[in-house]
User: Fold these one by one.
Assistant:
Number 1:
Amino acid sequence: MKSSNNHLAGKKREEKPKLWSFAIPPIIWSLHFLACYITASVWCAKVAENASDFMIVRVAIAIYTALALTFIFLQATKGRRLFKQQGLRQLPHSDDTIEDRNRFLAFVIILICFLSAVATLFVGFTGIIFRSCN
Amino acid sequence: MTDASKRLKETQEKNLKKAWKVPEGWRYWSEVNNSEVGLWYAGASFCFFLFAGTLALLMRFQLAIPENSFLSAKIYNQIFTMHGTVMMFLFAIPIFEAISILILPQLLGARDLPFPRLSAYGFWCFLIGGIFVCASLFFGVAPEGGWFMYPPLTTKYQPGVGADIWLLGLTFIEIASIAASIELIVGILKCRPPGMRIHLMPIYAWYILVVAIMILFAFPPLIAGDILLEMNRAFDWPFFDPARGGDPLLWQHLFWIFAHPEVYIIFLPSVALVATILPTFARRPLVGYSWVVLSAIGTGFISFGLWVHHMFTTGLPGISLGIFSAASQMVAIPTGIQLFCFLATLLAGKFVKTVPMLFACGGMASFVIGGLTGVMLAIAPFDFQAHDSFFIVAHLHYVLIGGSVFPILGGIYYFFPLVRGKQLSEKLGRKAFWLILIGLNVTFFPMHFSGLLGMPRRVFTYSESLGVGGYNIVSTIGAVILATGILIIVIDVLRPNKRSSKRDPWKAGTLEWLVNMPPGQWGVRSIPVVESRYPLWQQSNFTSNVDEGNFYLPDAQEEMRETLVTTTVDARPIHCLRVPGPTFVTIFAAIFTGGFFIFSTYKWYWLATASGILALGFILYWLWTGTAWIPEKERKDVGMGKSLPLYASGPKAVGWWAMFITMLADLTAFISLVFGYFFYWTVHEDFPPEPNPGPGIFFPTLAAGLGVGAWALTCLSRRWNRLDNARLFYFSIGTAALMAAGASLSLLAGPWVTGLDPKQHVYPAIVWVLTIWSALHLGVGVIMQLYCAARRIGGKMSSHYNADITNVTLYWHFMALTIIVTVMVISGFPLLV
């Protein structure tokens, strides 16, 4: 049997990672997604008159994408820092210790940042491809 | 073991038995324990599955040959509408809630989930609503507009009550889903066993947490849409009538903002079953636990960015289609990661060939076929060609049967011993599996071809000249094969003389298999300390320690039902929660809640109002007698030398979390209505109209002032209650209630005095809806404030035992936001435009 006191022994050095930090990168993606969609649809419904106007939408999407990627990168950096603080160790990070808990949290945050960045780029590419509302 | 310790153990078990005893005779139906409610829930939703499956067979008989007259067009329309509706709303989502309510407490080593009465209420709402909706078919009044209920088909061309039954019946059922999601989120976050840190949580719990959160944000837009469509039908408010400024596309947005995530709400819990079954029969832990958690969260989020791919042919701007097409293709990445992790688990472990394993693997293989056609359909130009054809029918059935039904059937075989203490037949199970797998492919694979050849869906027959007769007869034969497989499972489940199961029959590693055979009512003998992801495999003497009562809560001295509340991340025990026992009040509350919706369907509004008031009365009685009990002592010895408080308020209390989660869902519904307002702004040149007809500035601003004042006074009430200043508490809470009532009235006065006629144009209609929404919520806020005052007068709330006022203050935080946004939208926005 593993030491039944492991989870109590680790208490002294315990940090307080937030569970919702998992949600921050995909929320950034969601905001980016909504910003792109709302900008494009409002522009096409209310403003669009000629092709040159549309450049504003493309620039806006580019700015949103750059901002979103920056924020996601910052989250990933935080995750990486937390991961490094625990000392590098292979998966599966399943020991009953604070360190493995933090490794797990940090690793998942890094993965989610990566996924969110790819998803942001997917959506951002529409700004490159489309040169008018249609 | 000494005689004394033997006697102690016997006494403890006797106490636990008494506390968790299931009522007998007719009182059995008053039970609220997860094991009973979960079983009823699962049984009822499976019956609805059989009903909807029978409807599918009837459709297949009709389509077997060209120009068939087995079913009339009207009956066919009702049947395909009910097939989709029942499968989605009465089977696919409820069965996941049922399975979760049934097994999650065991999986978490908890005695019960934190709100058993809420689960029971949800179940009764589901059952009453489900019977109401299904029964309409036998009276020839069932809805005919498809499970998606698109206007103007459902507003202009269907004058009967069918669409109302759909709208009000399903809104009623959605209450059950939101109730279950509250129960599951709080259960997973707060009722894990001590030591089960977030990274040791069973993967099933991770999936269910993600899905339950998704429900909170997916269902409310549909509720908002239901409100608008029902207002359109019942009172002629023109939300979807283009002649008066409405737009049918708004319904499509609201419906698909719900319905696309719903596909993942159905799919992810089934993947959770696969992720639970595979490691057991691979005899090793899941490979890539962190990656699978990533995939669950990622899929959950991205699924909210796909809804427009159901609307590719509605004429939206190309760039909008591009954005949604990109997200739709993107979702394949996290989905694929999960599947690769499952394959890796099988490669790294063994492959014990059992019925659950066959269903899990067969399901995932079939799902991949549907997933690949899904990626094809995410590409807009391809979708333009395949839209509304049988190609889509093939795609969605591969996804839903492979991704959802197969794992559920595997889950039935896997968890049956846990629930009934008996094992289903391996022989019958294998036969059923092969018949269903063959049936699925024979039925749906030809539909790819019939669809590409131009066979439209939702049409009751087709011409011979279309050249799809051969494909259709094959599909019908396949449907019969598939149904035979399902029938074998039904026979297996119902047949008597099943083999008794031994304990942990599959040699699994997760906590639910601690259960004794036959299973007892109390769940686990003592709530264990968990230190690994597969404690039955990885912690020595674990089962014997649990059985000996060496862990937490081995006793129920006061003969009350108790479980532990732990911290969110590290699962440190913080509170001993007493959960309420059997009651009929939840049934009555559900019956009268149902009455409100059912009477409204037939426009018997006085009866509906009376029923609604009775429902409110029963809910208040339930809250008064069954929540925030003041305990007879401050703390209780829970075993392992630990003593825990018996009362909690604020974020430590499960009730606070339930309020927070409920209000998130409520806020989402409100935001959906606000979205409606701005949607009309985007599609009209003159929205809000110029000159602005109302609701003016004065009354809405007054309402905002009074509402914010009521919020501030509610916050002060909480403070004065905590400081035990009774006089100031009663003064502030009373004044807050008066101000809130004033805010509600002055909010309604805005459109009233400016003479906004909601039937005339969509602008006054949407202003009225936002106003009524906020005014009703202010009314609920008043009831809550008065409830708190009454609780203190009745000695059920004090400066120390203050959960009620803390939760009500939380409600009012959301209320303040709601009223500010409402006033900014209805009064502020017209000034900007």
Number 2:
Amino acid sequence: MLQAQTKDSIKTANIEQVVLIGYGKQKKSDLTGSISSITAKDFNGGATSPAQLIQGKAPGVSITGNSGAPGSGSSIRVRGIGTLNGSQSPLIVIDGVPQDFSGISGASDPLSLINPNDIETFDILKDASATAIYGNRASNGVILVTTKRGAAGKLKVNFSTLASVSTKMKNTPVLSADEFRAFIEANASAAYQAKLGNADTNWQDKIYQAAWGSDNNVAISGGIKGLPYRLSLGYNEQNGIVKTNSFRRTSAGLNINPKFFDNHLSVTLNNKVTFTDNQFAAGGVISDATYFDPTQPVYSGNSDYSGYYEWLLNGGLNVNANANPVSKLYSTRDVSSIWRYLGNAQIDYKVHFLPDLHVNLNVGYDYTKSNGAKTEYADFKNAFADKGRYRSYSQEKQNKLLETYLSYTKTIDIINVDLVAGYAYQNFHRFEPYAPTYNGNNVEPPKGNDYEFRNVLLSFYGRGIFTIANKYIISASVRRDGSSRFWNGSDTGNLWGTFPGVSLAWKINEESFLKGKGINTLKLRAGWGKTGNQELTNVADYPAYSSYNYGNSSAQYYLGDQWYQMYKPNIFNPNLTWETTTTKNIGLDFGFAKNRISGSIDYFQKTAEKLLVDSPIQAGDVSNHSALNLGTMDSKGIEGSLTLIPVKTENTTWELSFNATHYTSKVTNLVTGADASFNIPQGGISGGVGNTIQAHVVGYAPYSFYVFQQVYDTAGKPLDGVFVDRNGDGKINESDKYFYKSTQPDAILGFSTKFSYGNWDAGLSARAVIGNYVYNNAAANSSLQSGSTNEYLQNVYYTAVDNKFSVPRYFSDLFVENASFVRLDNVNLGYNFKDIFAPGSSLRVYGMAQNVFVITKYTGVDPEVFGNIDNGYYQMPRVYSLGLNFNF
Amino acid sequence: MKSYKIRFRTLIAAASFATLFATTSCMKDLEQTPIVDVTAESVYSNFANYPNALAKLYGGFAHGGQEGGGGNPDINGIDGNFSQYTRQLFTLQVLPTDEAVIAWNDGTLQTIHKMSWDSSNEFVSAFYYRIFTEIAFCNDFLRNTTDEKLAGYNITGDNLTEARYMHAEARYLRALAYYHALDLFGNVPFPTEENMPIGSSTPPPRITRPELYKFVEAELLACSNDLKNARTAGYGRADKAAAWSLLARLYLNAGVYTGTTQYAKVIEYSNKVIQAGYGLKTKYADLFLADNDQNNPEVIFPIIFDGLKAQSYGGTTYLVHAAVGGTMKASDFGINGGWSGLRTTKAYVNLFGGANTNDLRGNFYTEKQTLEIEDLGNFSNGYPFIKFKNVTSTGAPGADVAGNFVDTDIAMFRLADIYLMYAEANLRGGGGDAGTALGYINALRSRAGANPVASINLNFILDERGRELGWEMTRRTDLIRYGKFTTASYLWPWKGGVKDGQAVEDYRNLYPIPAKDIIANSNLIQNQGY
């Protein structure tokens, strides 16, 4: 919503909601594509990263936190997974500047570097007719983020502060000290029983803490001599529920949007600066705490290894054993700082002699610099053999944008014409100097290569929107994109892709036969379009170009008289090109009873072709895998939302909204001539080396679990190592595995409600995911043998006692657990002291709880794990906060 | 209005020119090339880079990738350390025999010793892909160092002579990799520098075992002319003796590969090596220590490792760490801790007549270990076999102070092997002199502190090969040649998955072509039985 400063919700109904559609805006009632728009009044409270603001708010949009660590950001998926190796994230555009897809070393998600309090609107473009205008990176949807602007007029100040306490939800259910003693005495040899200790330690309790955090923001907006501005400052400090983990973010923003020449020239200058400071907890410490022997004490009583108890063997450290988790936490100091500047200037010139023509220029610059250092001290087991380790790293990213476009609007008779044509150039550059690890042995670290990468995108686009008699709307766009990623040194054909889109809308409520019948909105939409994807994850940066790599000095070879670093020819694919997705969408928007009942429903179908996959290739080339455009994937789904306002009086308002999404994706082709057994393994697990539990295969959803079917006895107990011989050949081997469930749920539901009575207000929001299946790695890793192996003892998941599996059965479908859940995300209650201190001012005091409860059958800690493999996942905290929001 | 129209037109004209100008200059920006990595042109036009390019061909046998410790691996689908060449060669040549068992449960590893692998076995696949990436690296070097290419890159004079030797070395290394393909997989794809450029989408053709044998033979015969003379190429580089040794090995097994034996040629090429001036190292144990690159007149062709400069968790780091566990002191082996994996079977111990032998080659660790193996996953079952260590001949530990990476080199070919091949070929009617053969065997035995013998027969040679070359990656090939790998004529513990051993299917004399390559390459046909 673009409107001047946020106001009370009751008054906004009269202002026509305007939505950004890329290079322009449209009234919500005139939209032809499938677009969800969420504004500040509907945001979730207490968000530390922007994606959390809209979690559960838009149908078809699924937001999962990457982990419970503060600042770790979220992964966003629009309408499920539409690609295999390409990036699956939507394109994020902040104030008109499209963002880079890659992360920054030291911060998991670039969106998390923006202060959520500065965000005004999220406009989520979901179907191709809407996203085609962003064609080249829009296959997974586009999210347009608009930050708050100033408005000319009186000075307005907003001050908000929030204090919170976070606690863990629960511990992974492993055995207690006494239960573990009983387990080892029943199942292990005498030699291992002798290793049991006398203590009773709950290791998970030892690494978690109640964490405190605060979020403070000040925003001043107004106009100085007709120059509207908004200045914001924020400071967020959040400790993680794992000890030693903390996050601090200082942000400042200044937006000014003056107008000149009698409103003919409007200039918008947005500037945001963020400084983030992270301290990460030592890696793997959550797994270590899960598995460490509960009968051993935290401290050994002597001063070896800084006084912590560690597993020893023959007088030295047992190198195969896991480390004491408390020792690991304090053995490591892993910090990073990130500076980010994001600025852009948008100039809109309404041509003097032709006011229907606007000339637009958008220039953007996004600069990030990160520095980090990881120190591991010599006196702890972690870095003992190396006598301590130290690694300092840095990274610099720059993103430059130049866009010019012309837009022309004119009303001719009953037809309103809106035309846009333009050009965009974007240049991404990334540089990371080689960062060696130094160790206390004073051995010089090996030499390696710096990392530097540049990617250029060039596009030409045009769009026409025709509105006839305010009833029939036709929108058509086409975009031609070139990407430097596909340059193979000789022909330019692979660089370019053309992405058209067309959509229609029929405002049925404007028809004469429906006017005056109390139907506020009834719009039928249909669209078709093509979008592209050129982001590859986990693959070389120049995958189409022939090159040689100079190896690291720790991998040299001796020839005759001296050592040489090796030149290796890299695998490349000179035929690599765009992946394209064709989407069809049909939708209906409705609103009755003065829009007290409103909503929409959409049905979509997507086909992705020339999927970018890191695929196995025939033997005989310089690697056994390469980036190829192979295969196709189909998705279809249905999503809808409904908003009800049952009560709306002077004093009382009650609003409810629901949304639901269901989609199915299926890989339809991978390699010509592939039979049912050809699959691309995914999903690494812990246990053994290189084991994977998921795969992409023709006929199933991507990331399907590839497992054996467990056999049970008559009492329902699983039989150790007995699996169904699915092909009936008398042997149990790879051919008896099958594809069971995947990361794709059956349905995603969201619910939120707001109630206000006088000065009181209350609200809650909840989400449910039905048909969610998660692989419980901790349970799979546990068995009679895993408790006592390699001369040390290791705790087991509680089901190991009943299952009595002799060795870990990683590939049994028993461990793909039903993790469907209902989660109450947010509950809040507040009181607004209106006109406090001065008329027009307000002070809202509120209390809030996040992640209040989760209802699920999943036996692990949290059923909502991104990627659906639960392996030492840093759980989402339960947060209790108290805040106040002061406006005057 | 006229003036507006003119201004309008000029404005549009100006805007279009500006845009056109901007776009054409920016179009070139789409042609981005790698910034850090370099092109073939910049590598091969400067002769100073040639050793670095050649280093990758040799390095393909020692490293899993471009970084120490398995980082930046060349192939995927298996950990970069697991897929290292000699580690996988050990897994497929030694682990399925009487010489070794392993305690770990990684993936389908246990099916190797139990001889129940199938075409989706990741260890079999890893070695297959490792062989073919090595062949691909060699093909790329050969493509870039033909006489025409060298002339095009302006390589002349001494550099040209050296480049031609390097070209021959690349042919040798490719022949060695193809030899392993021939021995383990038989009927494989056949990429050459002509039919398989990098990034090609055409699958290479299939070659059958007898045809591949002819190719390897032809390549090695060419190498034995083109390579540098024996013992003149510098440590680690292939020379004529390396070619002769591989030819001897090829001819010794010709009956298995083609159906026609070639024992006379074994004698011919063994003699060439023996006459080139090699000699046995005085102390047997020194052959497998951290300084086995020094004072070693016996090694013909080594694969080189180093604790600092050639770090890999495969290679000898694997051989040393994996064999240490239980009550064995890691510092005696120059490492920071054992991985408790490898031991040997009683069938192997019996080759020495028991663990109390005075034969130095039968070095077993018996404290708190049982001879019988009840449970393959328990390290205390089965005697650990002491052979490779990361200490020098004077007892000093290796170069890596942290005790992770091992310095010891692996000898692909050493004189002892040649002696044994001569003796076997002589017994099988290939010619040569029986007295000389007996002399060679007794030279090996007296070096090892074992009693000399008065006469030898074929079965004795097989056992002596086991004693002399234990864990040196020839056992499976030898057992197949003697018809004992899959049959009931020789049973060892847990052969075929049964405690006392049982015969397995005949088709297991060849490993399967990985299922993934059968699908990716329609020219291939799976080996019989899989």
